[in-house]
């Protein structure tokens, strides 16, 4: 077949490689004509216009490792060859410490070397349709590329399939990311990692995340409400550095003897949870992928994992019935409305619960935790928080966070969390009478979930650096 893929990011490149290796002729159309850097070091400054999260912190989950191992094992080999660290988790699960820019640099290089893939640097104007099926795409410069399959991998705006997409859910993620990148000094090593691929310190009105990457680089990231005036000052370098000194986990990682900053403070906001479906009038042979269908808060790093999963499922559907566009549509729709929608709903419910808790703290109350009744009524956030208090819960939460088990699998450990609550445990406190238990996948000797100071202490620490900026809190 002739395949045109609009968008040269993770989803588009994955689909291109998988389809080309079935013998199809694939053209990847990307508006960004910035050349792939000569080496992976240059990828850190690669100006990928239109990819807002390209230089943001990135978690390479076990689900992503598994999907690539199954569908594109040479991509994993290339990542290992350039020194990307592999992380061993529980139950034989593996992940990597890898920047988004490194992953895309390897995918682009692999695609450029693939005989059946051609890169076309242009913008798609519209999809050509005849008799209810796609026939190709028209580019902004007037050229027409014939196609039996048109893949929309243009990201959250879904520019190519937008005329046939219908919004099902669109809600704010209610979280802003403020981050800065650091590099280890010669001879230094990473700090403690308590969640396998990231390290986390949960505050009562914010979260501190540390993302280890490849090439001795890591990112420190504070997440907060978009409408929290007391923490908006984190975007200022002096305030950000003051905050890293106050949170013990961040202070350990960013100690001047361990690391030095290599970027400015970067803010990412305006995040939304969106889920779309193709209307019944959509032409056969048109298939939106990844963010064109589903976007969620990147807090848990699910985007690239689900993008690769989506792309490989499209390739699998085509391989199973190469001439049956109707079957491709049916299989991809079933996966989107099933597993993908389940992960979307899980992320959205988590966002809503976290935002409600943080707003209660911002408005002068305490975290809305309480002690819920036993059984399945235990709130989702409490189950996640219990990962550091009990190894069985920790194992289940780790498998959940890495998209290995379906969201409903967490129901199996809710009664166990209820027992912890009945024994007097609350988030941020040890289980009375029990020894501390680090989550599975934690390197030997590393602590469990490190404590983070209350929001009010963080706000007070920012005031001297910001003067009147933080005084409105």
From TrEMBL:
InterPro entries: FAD-dep_OxRdtase, FAD/NAD-bd_sf, Flavin_halogenase
Pfam families named among the record's database cross-references: DAO (PF01266), Trp_halogenase (PF04820)
Biased composition range(s): Low complexity: 432-449
Superkingdom of origin: Bacteria
Signal sequence bounds: none
Domain FAD dependent oxidoreductase per the UniProt entry, residue ranges: 3-67
Disordered as annotated region, ranges: 432-456
UniProt protein name: FAD dependent oxidoreductase domain-containing protein
Source species: Modestobacter italicus (strain DSM 44449 / CECT 9708 / BC 501)
């Amino acid at each position: 077949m002739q395949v045109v893929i609009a968008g040269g990011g993770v989803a588009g490149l994955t689909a291109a490689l998988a389809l080309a290796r079935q013998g199809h002729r694939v053209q990847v159309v990307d508006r960004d004509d910035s050349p792939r850097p000569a080496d992976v070091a240059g990828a850190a400054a690669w100006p990928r216009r239109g990819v807002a999260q390209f230089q943001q912190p990135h978690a390479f989950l076990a689900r992503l490792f598994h999907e690539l191992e199954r569908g594109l094992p040479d991509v994993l080999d290339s990542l290992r060859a350039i020194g990307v660290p592999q992380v061993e988790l529980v139950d034989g699960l593996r992940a990597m410490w890898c920047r988004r820019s490194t992953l895309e640099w390897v995918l682009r290089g692999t695609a450029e070397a693939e005989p059946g893939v051609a890169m076309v640097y242009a913008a798609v104007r519209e999809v050509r349709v005849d008799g209810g099926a796609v026939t190709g795409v028209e580019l902004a410069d007037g050229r027409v590329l014939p196609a039996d399959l048109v893949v929309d991998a243009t990201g959250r705006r879904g520019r190519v399939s937008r005329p046939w997409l219908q919004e099902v859910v669109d809600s704010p993620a209610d979280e802003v990311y403020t981050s800065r990148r650091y590099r280890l000094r010669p001879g230094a090593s990473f700090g403690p990692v308590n969640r396998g691929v990231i390290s986390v310190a949960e505050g009562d009105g914010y979260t501190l995340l540390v993302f280890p990457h490849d090439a001795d680089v890591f990112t420190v990231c504070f997440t907060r409400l978009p409408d929290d005036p007391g923490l908006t000052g984190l975007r200022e370098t002096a305030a950000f550095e003051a905050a890293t000194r106050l949170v013990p986990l961040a202070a350990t990682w960013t100690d001047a003897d361990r690391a030095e900053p290599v970027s400015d403070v970067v803010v990412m906001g305006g995040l939304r949870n969106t889920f779309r479906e193709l209307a019944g009038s959509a032409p056969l042979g048109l298939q939106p992928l990844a963010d064109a269908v589903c976007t969620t808060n990147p807090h848990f790093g699910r985007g690239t994992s689900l993008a690769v999963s989506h792309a490989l499922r499209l390739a699998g559907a085509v391989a199973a019935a190469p001439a049956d566009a109707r079957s491709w549509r049916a299989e991809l729709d079933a996966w989107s409305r099933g597993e993908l929608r389940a992960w979307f709903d899980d992320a959205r419910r988590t966002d809503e619960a976290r935002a409600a808790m943080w707003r209660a703290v911002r408005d002068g109350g305490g975290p809305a935790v309480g002690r819920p009744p036993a059984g399945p009524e235990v709130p989702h956030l409490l189950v996640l928080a219990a990962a550091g208090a009990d190894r069985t819960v920790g194992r289940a939460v780790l498998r959940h966070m890495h998209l290995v088990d379906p969201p409903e699998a967490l129901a199996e450990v809710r009664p166990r969390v209820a027992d912890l609550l009945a024994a007097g445990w609350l988030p941020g406190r040890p289980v009375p009478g029990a020894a501390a238990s680090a989550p599975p996948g934690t390197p030997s000797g590393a602590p469990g979930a490190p404590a983070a100071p209350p929001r009010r202490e963080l706000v007070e620490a920012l005031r001297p650096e910001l003067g009147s900026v933080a005084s409105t809190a």
